[in-house]
Design brief:
This protein is α/β, with parallel strands linked by helices. The protein has two domains: about 1-210, Spore Coat Polysaccharide Biosynthesis Protein SpsA, Chain A, CATH 3.90.550.60; about 220-320, no CATH class. About 45% of the residues lie in helices and about 20% in strands. The chain has eleven helices and twelve strands. It has helices spanning about 10-25, 45-50, 65-75, 90-105, 165-170, 185-195, 220-235, 240-260, 265-285, 290-310, 315-320, and strands at about 1-10, 30-35, 55, 80, 85-90, 105-115, 120-125, 125-130, 135, 150-155, 160-165, 200-210. Strands 1, 2, 3, 4, 5, 6, 7, 10, 11 and 12 form a ten-stranded mixed beta sheet that branches. It has a two-stranded antiparallel sheet with strand order 8-9. The longest helix has 22 residues, at about 240-260. The relative contact order is 0.13.
C-alpha cells in the first residue's frame, strides 16, 4: 500500500491541482492524507472534496510536525511526501516506485523541474558540503544529460519523494526542532550514517512552483535556513570538527550570508545565526567521524556536478577558497 502525505498551509489552488494529479496517476495511491496546518483558505474543503483524509491542526505547527503526524497516521508501507505546490506527470508514482523496488532502495526521488520554466531544473536529489551548506542538485540549471542519469543517493528532498515507512521507524521521525528547511538534509544524513540508501529516478518527473508559502528569500525562510545550518553542525559534527574543518564551515556560512544580503535578507541571516549559536550549547550532540566521511562523499558529488553543469558563483567561490 502507498500513502501520500501532503502538509499544507493555505495554497488551496495548488493543492487542488496536486490532488487532481494524484487521481490521474497510472499507479494510484491507496490513501491520501492532507495535514492542514491551520489554513485560512479553502484547503480543507478542497481536500475533502477530492476524497482525501484531512488531519487538521488549529495552528501552523511547521512542516516537520505536519509530516510526522501524517506518517504516524499512514496505513501504507510506502509513504509519498509531497509539497502542496507540486505538479506530477501521470507516471510519476509508478516510475518512482518501480525504480525503488528494482534497485532495492528504501527511498527515491525523481527529476523536479521548475513549474514556470519547464526546461529549468528545480532539483533532483540533495547534497551537503563539509561547510554545512546544502545544494538541491541541479537547481537553476538547464535540464539535460547530466540530470538524466539514474544513481544511488544519500539525500532525498521532501519536496516530492517516496520512502519505505519502516525507514522512519529505524531512523526516527523528522527532527521537529528544525521546524522547516534542512529537516530533509538532517534525515538524509541520519540515513546515510545508518547505511540506508535511496535512488534517483530521472524519468519520474514533477514540477515545483517553489517556496509558494513564503518565498525563496522571505525573511523567515532565510532565518530558518541560517539557524538550521548551525543545527546540522551542532547535531552531527564530531567534537574535534572545529580544528579539522572549522575554516570550511566559516567560509561556507559567510558566503551564504553574502548571498542572503545580496537578496535583501542579510538581517535574517544574522538573526538565524544568532539563534543557532545560542541553541548550540544546550542541544549539542556527540556527532561521529562517520558524518564527516558521508559529507566528504557528498561534497565530492557537488564538485563533480558543478563541473559538469557549470559552476554557480557560490560554489565556485567555496571550492576556490577551500
Amino acid at each position: 500500500m502507498i500513502t501520500c502525505v501532503i502538509p499544507t498551509y493555505n495554497g488551496a489552488a495548488y493543492l487542488s491541482r496536486l490532488l487532481a494529479d494524484l487521481r490521474a496517476q497510472t499507479l494510484a495511491p491507496d490513501e491520501i492524507l492532507v495535514v492542514d496546518n491551520g489554513s485560512t483558505d479553502e484547503c480543507v474543503a478542497v481536500a475533502k472534496a477530492a476524497g482525501a483524509r484531512v488531519l487538521h491542526e488549529s495552528t501552523n505547527l511547521g512542516f516537520c510536525r505536519a509530516v510526522n503526524r501524517g506518517i504516524d497516521e499512514a496505513t501504507g508501507d510506502w509513504i509519498v511526501i509531497l509539497n502542496n505546490d507540486v505538479e506530477l506527470t501521470r507516471e510519476w508514482l509508478e516510475r518512482l516506485n518501480r525504480g525503488a523496488e528494482e534497485s532495492g532502495a528504501r527511498f527515491a526521488s525523481g527529476k523536479i523541474l521548475n513549474a514556470r520554466e519547464r526546461t529549468v531544473m528545480d532539483g533532483s536529489f540533495d547534497a551537503l558540503c563539509l561547510g554545512g551548506c546544502a545544494w538541491r542538485c541541479g537547481w537553476g540549471k538547464a535540464d539535460g544529460a547530466v540530470w538524466d542519469q539514474p544513481r544511488t543517493i544519500q539525500f532525498a528532498p521532501f519536496t516530492a519523494a517516496l520512502f519505505e515507512k519502516s525507514v522512519f521507524r529505524e531512523i526516527g521521525p523528522l527532527d521537529d526542532s528544525f521546524e522547516s528547511y534542512l529537516e530533509d538534509i538532517d534525515f538524509g544524513l541520519r540515513c546515510a550514517m545508518a547505511g540506508v540508501f535511496g535512488v534517483y529516478v530521472p524519468d519520474a518527473v514533477a514540477y515545483h512552483h517553489g517556496s509558494a508559502t513564503l518565498g525563496r528569500w522571505h525573511e523567515e525562510t532565510v532565518r530558518n535556513i541560517s539557524r538550521n545550518q548551525v543545527m546540522l553542525v551542532c547535531k552531527h559534527y564530531p567534537r574535534d570538527w572545529n580544528g579539522a574543518i572549522g575554516w570550511k564551515v566559516l567560509i561556507a556560512q559567510l558566503l551564504w550570508g553574502l548571498l542572503a544580503a545580496r537578496h535583501g535578507a542579510g538581517g535574517s541571516w544574522v538573526r538565524g545565526k544568532y539563534e543557532g549559536i545560542r541553541l548550540f550549547g544546550e542541544r549539542r550532540q556527540a556527532g561521529s567521524q562517520k558524518a564527516l566521511d558521508v559529507l566528504r562523499v557528498s561534497e565530492g558529488e557537488i564538485r563533480t556536478l558543478q563541473q559538469a553543469s557549470g559552476f554557480d558563483p557560490y560554489w565556485r567561490a567555496y571550492f576556490w577558497l577551500t
